[in-house]
Design goal:
alpha/beta, Immunoglobulin-like, Rossmann fold, 2 domains, 13 helices, disordered N terminus
Amino acid sequence: MPRRTQDVSTKLEKLCSALVGTKLASKIPLLQAQGGCPLVEDIDGDSENKRVTFFHDGKAECESANVCSLSFAAIRLDPDGISISQEQLQSPIMTETPKFSMEKLEGTNIWVLSRDIPKEARFCYSIEAQPGEALGHDPLNPISFSASSDEARLDSVLDLSSLEVAPQTTSMSHIISENRLKRYSISDAGILTERTEEYSPREDERMLTVHLPEEPLDLKKDYQMRLFLDGEWYLKGFEVPAILDDGTINIMLEPKVVHKNDVWKNREHDYRFDIYGDGFAKFLAEKLVPSVQQKFHVSSDASDLTICGSSLSGFAAMYIGLHHQEVFGNVLVQSAALWLDAKELDGRLLELIESKSESLQNSCFHLETSRIESSDIFSANHAFAEAMTQHGIKHIFVETCGEHGPAAWSQLLPGAVRSLQEIRTELTPSTIPTPLSIRCTPT
């Protein structure tokens, strides 16, 4: 497939003659001198995008190579070389990872793909070296992220954003060494029991991890709490944003295991209120929160409690925040799957903002969505932010350019936590503009 004129990398054209007849590995210093891999260039006359060139050092028998990424599809690239249908390309839920064909440089074993990508984009990708082979990270790219349930698999990260990634961090090994991560099960009746990492929950139990403050719990103090749905990955890795290690009780709640080896169905069972009803919401409000309040001296003031979620669990967090504002006074959602409200609930969740606007005056919301997510997700989050603006509900709405996945969410989480703190503590009800809607973009 010939490269499209608008996507030809000018630096790559200059490199081609030097690469002919060589192995890519021997030319890595040359590529690094041009700015590293992938190769990122400015585009004359285009201030909104960057030209990005991916490389793969193939074997002599290599017949094809692909760059694979869910976010690539959401960027709405020209369909040349895309392995999926346009219908799937527009779907908010993709059943397969799109593959983008690379081109073999004549006279070499080097495969390349040049595409124009929005500046500020951040997303994961992988390389398929041969048809049917397992996807692997890009060995030429030093930035990687464990974005799948298989922690042994690393995807590579393309980061064009100007945001610092958690500039202040706490070492995860330090937190573990201080015995500040506790593993518990919680039964449907709300009974908390400390467990080992190896423990397998019973049918009536969910697992959760509690991240405790650095100082011993003060029995005379009421602590703030953040409850992360789908949140077991928030504290994975070697460093934790300092803003999460700020004396707040952080709880990472995992979905109930109702289908072994099927994470998606487990998530649906807890988070799809349109299918399974509001039993999970009642469990959080009536069982989990009271048990955590008693065990860890968590405040009973809703303004001190935050519920957080992303994608499908973001849909759940929004549902719970609207239905149980007396429990959770703060709601933080990243790329929430709010399109489900329009397609499965006939807009009933959106209507709650109007019908409960008076009782939501003491609630604070942080919503964020990305320009490179599916149009359904993007437009649905905009609709919720507009409804909150119309009804004077305190919120911050952030439009980003990250992927629909934890590689972007983890980078944006510190800012999201900070935005809720600022709207809650720095703006009193008397000084908050009515309605309040703050649109932020990375600068």
